[in-house]
Backbone:
């Protein structure tokens, strides 16, 4: 495997940047989040097709601890039916959980731990995989964004505002430049797929009209 492997972040967010618990009320109720499952009423065929496309080249899965625990408790038991293709893929490919806890239980077959030296470990993953996807894992994603340890940020942005919850770019996020890599895709329910790549440097300032 060449050193050209990609790290792709996949997120569902609201218009105000909230990415907490889109899939269900029990996904991440931390801090009393009252809108768990906000994405469910808005899912449509375009988003489903986008999810399928995002997984087409995936041969590794990289997750934060909370998302890993959710996935490990769910996907081993969902390998048939409508979700069967996703379950089979997730169970087949290597899984990596980002944690500094060397005793963290890894009960999902094919799982291993990273987190002691994240930059070096992700560089190593690039040599072993064609594409490693990061799904959900908002807290971990903020670290990847701040340290620019990713190649593409893919966000389905939904036309709702929640006003509370974990945001992709919270107050204090590291300033960064990004580049839109493809034209946005708009679903029938008004969700917009935005795909960005990191750019060098930080945002510049100026005066309008000069």
Residues:
């Amino acid at each position: 495997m060449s050193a050209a492997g990609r790290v792709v972040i996949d997120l569902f967010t609201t218009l105000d940047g909230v990415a907490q618990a889109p899939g269900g009320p029990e996904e991440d109720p931390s801090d009393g989040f009252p809108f768990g499952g906000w994405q469910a009423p808005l899912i449509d065929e375009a988003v489903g097709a986008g999810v399928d496309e995002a997984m087409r080249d995936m041969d590794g899965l990289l997750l934060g601890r909370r998302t890993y625990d959710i996935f490990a408790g769910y996907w081993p038991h969902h390998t048939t039916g409508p979700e069967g293709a996703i379950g089979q893929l997730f169970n087949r490919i290597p899984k990596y959980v980002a944690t500094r806890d060397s005793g963290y239980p890894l009960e999902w077959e094919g799982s291993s731990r990273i987190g002691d030296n994240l930059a070096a470990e992700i560089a190593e993953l690039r040599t072993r995989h064609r594409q490693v996807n990061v799904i959900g894992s908002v807290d971990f994603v903020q670290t990847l964004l701040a340290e620019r340890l990713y190649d593409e940020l893919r966000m389905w942005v939904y036309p709702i505002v929640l006003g509370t919850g974990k945001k992709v770019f919270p107050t204090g996020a590291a300033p960064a430049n990004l580049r839109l890599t493809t034209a946005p895709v708009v679903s029938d329910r008004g969700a917009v797929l935005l795909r960005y790549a990191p750019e060098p440097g930080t945002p510049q300032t100026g005066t309008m009209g000069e």
About this structure: The first helix runs from residue 45 to 54. Strands lie at 6-14, 60-64, 95-98, 111-114, 131-135, 152-158, 177-180, 185-186, 192-199. The mean pLDDT is 92.
